[in-house]
Design a protein that fits this description.
It is a single chain. With 266 residues, the chain is mainly α. It is built from eleven helices and no strands. It has a domain at 101-165. The radius of gyration is 28 Å and the shape is rod-shaped. The protein starts with a helix and ends with a helix.
């Protein structure tokens, strides 16, 4: 199961994100002496700039009157919630509900053609959490009681109406939380700029004004950066899960029709 997870698209995406995080952590830091040397040289060391950006980004998670921390922690909570929902949906849609439907249906039809409904039902019971086995069992039990082709189709349709919401449930929340992260990032940027410009005329020293302005703008941009960093993976995951759920529903519809036709001929 673990190997199949890493072979899937979500597994490869997770590995890519993990590798990117490893590269971020393994970036060599610049000592104070190197910082002073880089500042004194004509060409600025890119590592010095990166370290300052990273330090400022992490610093904004702490309490400050600029309120960047407020928006950033909301973004983190939205991201963590979205990942939790996505993990649960991935387990339900990809790992729990899906079986090899073509192979399963082919075997099921062989039992139906010989009217061996007991073995067909046993085959469904062997995969109690699979979507198609659950729906097929309802039709097979109706066929076993000789209720007619219409009753068989009605039984499968009724079970389908019960089961489909379990597949699509909470899926929209992943995309919604991705949009929430983006909006909160923009809101934090707007508030940060308002806070910066509101305090600009309170600083009389021109150099201090420039420092206050640059520091305030950098802090304001950090919320947008964090919002986009969390919204992009959530959007990709949301698209993957929507495609997976649609594929599952299409497979269920196709193989349910095959089973209904086989039961009608039996």
């Amino acid at each position: 199961m673990g190997l199949q997870l890493f072979q899937s698209r979500v597994g490869r995406l997770s590995l890519a994100m993990l590798f990117g995080a490893f590269l971020l952590v393994s970036v060599p830091t610049v000592s104070y002496a190197q910082e002073q040397e880089g500042a004194a040289s004509e060409e600025i060391d890119p590592r010095l700039i990166f370290n300052r950006v990273l330090a400022g980004f992490l610093k904004d998670f702490k309490f400050s009157y600029g309120m960047a921390w407020f928006f950033q922690w909301i973004i983190i909570v939205s991201f963590a919630t979205g990942l939790g929902i996505a993990a649960e949906r991935y387990y339900t849609i990809v790992m729990k509900s899906k079986v090899n439907m073509k192979k399963f249906t082919d075997q099921l039809i062989k039992y139906v053609e010989t009217k061996d409904y007991d073995r067909a039902i046993q085959l469904c019971n062997a995969s109690p959490s699979g979507a198609l086995p659950i729906l097929s069992r309802a039709g097979l039990e109706a066929a076993k009681r000789n209720m007619g082709a219409r009753a068989v189709q009605d039984s499968i349709d009724e079970e389908t109406l019960k089961f489909m919401p379990l597949i699509t449930n909470r899926l929209p929340w992943v995309g919604t939380l991705a949009n929430t992260s983006t909006m909160m990032g923009l809101m934090g940027t707007i508030f940060g700029l308002m806070y910066t410009f509101a305090g600009l005329d309170l600083v009389l020293n021109p150099k201090a004004q420039a420092a206050h302005l640059s520091r305030g703008i950098a802090t304001a941009m950090n919320t947008t950066l964090l919002g986009l960093m969390t919204a992009v993976p959530l959007t990709l995951i949301s698209s993957f899960l929507n495609a997976a759920s649609k594929s599952l529903v299409d497979d269920i519809d196709e193989n349910s029709v095959r089973l209904i036709n086989a039961l009608s001929r039996a």
